[in-house]
Amino acid sequence: MTNDELRPYPTTGPTAQGGLAPHLMDYWYVVSRHLGLVITALVVTLALSVYALTRKATYYQADVTLQISDPMEQSRSLTSGSGFSNSDIFVDPIQSEIELLSSSALARTVVDQAGLRLRPEAAGLFRSDLWTGGWIAPTVPPGTRYELVREEDGSVELLGPDGISLDRAAAGGTLDAAGIQITPAVGAPVGRHGLRVPSYGEVIGEIQPNIWAESREGTNLIDVRFTMLDSVLAPSIANVWAAALRDLGAERVREHASRDVGFIQEQLDSARAQLTRSLNAIRSFKESEAFTSLSFEEQDLVNEGHRLADEVERYEWHLSVFRALIGGMEQSGAEGVDLVRFLAELPADANPEIRMGATRIQEKTNELDRVLTLDLKTRAHPAAQALINQIGLLEVELLAAVRASIGVTEQRLIQASSDLADIRARQRAFPALANELQTLELERELDQDAYQYLLSQLYQARIMEAAAGPYVHIVDPAETSYEAPRGGRGYLILGTALGLFLGICASFFVEYLDRTVRTRAEAEGLLGHPVLGTVPEWREPEGQREVGKVPRLVVRDPFERAGEAFRGLRLNLSFLHVDGRPVKSILVTSPGPVEGKSTTSLNLAATFAQYGERVLLIDADLRRPVVHSALDLARDPGLTHLLIGSAEADDVIHRDVIPNLDVIPAGPIPPNPAELVGSMVMSETLGELERGYDRVIVDSPPVLAVTDAAGTAGFVDGVLLVLRSGHTEQRAAERTAEHLGRLGVRILGLVLNDIQRRVQEENYYLRYHARYGVDSAAQESVKTATADQLRGALAKVRLR
After folding, report:
1. Could you tell me the pLDDT band of residue 759, with boundaries at 50, 70 and 90?
2. 3-state class of 536 per DSSP?
């Protein structure tokens, strides 16, 4: 019979190649098997993180608070009482200023204004240790070296790159030379101190990451923070940075206003030229021959019609201006009306009280805006309330004057419209000339309107240009610096993450280097033989396990998990057949020593005996026999005597060591054990012994260590190969299977011994057994039972 006939399922496919696809728990068990390595890596990285934290230099922070207002707010209050704010159409003006604050262009300005392009060469020496103020010209090339010399009497001297003195000053004086200016610190250390000029890029790269800004939610305030090693210089740089942002914003507003003025001026010049052309066209028409051939009456009618049309248009425009003012003031008060534009459009012959009232209201409104915006007062403040009441009284007076002017203007409009209608009725007699002249007049009126509009816009733009100022205000400048947090939590979190990462990587690397057989899937995929039993690891009670003895798991405690594993092995072997008959003689061996073959032999024999079969256990390991020690039997006489013919079978068989189990110990160790167990005598002896028993279990030496097992394996029905999980090398297992295969030995199957709880594939069985095991009281009664009571109990167990 071939080995393939003994395999209950194919040796190829997913099962043979390692079982199911890897599960997340498979990776977890890899880590858990090397938990000590992970913990070691974690402890080392945490220790390094703590060390790095203690060695970290102390940084200092300085805080500045800025307020961002509308860039056009001041000028708008002088030109318009309503309209959209520039901040209303920006995507996010506050965030825009924050981004501008960290720009390289602004950082370069800070470098120049704070004199940061000059630094001490000595490590650990700050700028504030040597000077309180310094400046260096942008034209000084990077890499230029100066030397600051301080004498015992407090005097200081500045030496140039060539060592020549550039300037000398008494204590408290200022050193001033071409392209450099330094105010030495009073407490500067005595001696020679080298100074170096770094490049802009180097300095900007150092300070730019140290500026931080964040807006306060629901306000237009920005908190700015600057961090550096120099505690004295940090507040100064923070204030310089804030001032640079303020000045840059003011410059941008002025440039924007100047561009507006220039553009409007260009358009106004173009409109003035167009208006001049329109006037010249009318003059040319009136001076033409066709116009002068009219009668004096017709000419007077034309002139009178133009005069009346101008009056009607002027009165209508006056009314529209007055009514717009009344409507705006009735709806939202003086603050909702563009009084500047009203004054610009107000006729020169209008009631002086109207112009005076509008001017006074505009002045009070501007004063109220300054109280609310610059002085940061609320509308409920007494000063603001007083201004509001004054504006209200002026509004009443202005409305009264405007309504009176409306009445007078309406009467004049009615009269002028009536006169114009009469004139036009008389002009119908010469429509052609009148129409041409009206066309020219219409073009002139359009050009005049465009010119007036652009003139008012130029007026407003010039006001905005003159009123342009900073819209970034320093609310709370930096007065001093304070020690910045060391960020210990970040170091510890980073160390923990890095330690876990390195530990896990090391676990998988060690797992990759581990070439032992660990799981059922690995064993079956590697050797191509089924695993008939998996035996979990166990722990012997203290003092019961001695060196060289094999524990009797099944006999001592039949409820032990390992005992259940051996009963499962017995069940699997009961279903195997050789040449149409059940497997009767089994040789138990392993690739190497200390892999559990004797343990398996003893407990397998005990489980067969426990289930009513007559079993003979033969200790054929004539090199290191242990069966007699495990069962407390005498080693002599034994198998050696039986094979050399110095004893009969009845003389060497120990009957009923436990019920139904007989044992033949090894006997004395012969000088030629391989020849003895591989002889025909051994074959004949096994044949005779098989006739008297249901099962014959042979414990033999390891296959790779000696040749004894290979010689005996041909005399039995099959071999049971024991592998120790996490101990047996894969190559050793492969060589053992190949060696037995070349000899034509039948390998019945594999036993995977000493399965650890951390082996995920086999851990399911262990957990299920723990849940469905015998209760603790029953286990304790078995553990405390005497040997005679146990043997009596086992004798009653039979398979019918």
Report:
1. low
2. strand
Q: Is residue 800 part of a domain?
A: no
Mean pLDDT computed over 707-730: 88
The letter for the amino acid at 659 is: P
Q: Given 448, 476, 504, which residue is the final one in a domain?
A: 476
Has residue 773 got a pLDDT over 60?
A: no
Domain that holds residue 41: 34-56+486-513
Which of the given ranges, 157-166, 287-296, 362-371, 482-491, has the highest pLDDT on average? 157-166
Is there a single domain that holds both residue 426 and residue 358? yes
Three-state DSSP class for residue 738: helix
Strands 695-699 and 585-589, sheet pairing? parallel
Give, as one character, the DSSP assignment of residue 189: P
Total structural domains in the chain? 4
Q: Is 776 exposed, middle or buried (0-12, 13-18, 19+ CB in 10 A)?
A: exposed
Mark whether 427 and 288 lie in a shared domain. yes
Contact 226, 433 (CB under 8 A): no
pLDDT at 434: 59
Q: Which of 79, 796, 785, 728 is nearest to 465 (CA)?
A: 79
Cβ–Cβ under 8 Å, residues 776 and 557: no
Give dist(CA 49, CA 94) in Å, integer: 38
Predicted model pTM? 0.48
Q: How far apart are CA 387 and CA 379, in angstroms?
A: 10
Residues 460 and 333 occupy one common structural domain: yes
Same domain, 642 and 779: yes
148 and 290 inside one domain: no
Residue 771, helix vs strand vs coil: helix
Whether residue 268 sits in one domain with residue 224: no
- Alpha-carbon distance of 195 to 95, in angstroms, equals 38
Q: How far apart are CA 312 and CA 566, in angstroms?
A: 121
Per DSSP, 208 falls in state G
464 vs 71: CA distance, rounded Å: 10
Helix (H) or strand (E) holding 697: strand 695-699
User: Residue 541 pLDDT > 60, yes or no?
Assistant: no
532: enclosing H helix or E strand: strand 531-536
Coil, strand or helix: which one is 199? coil
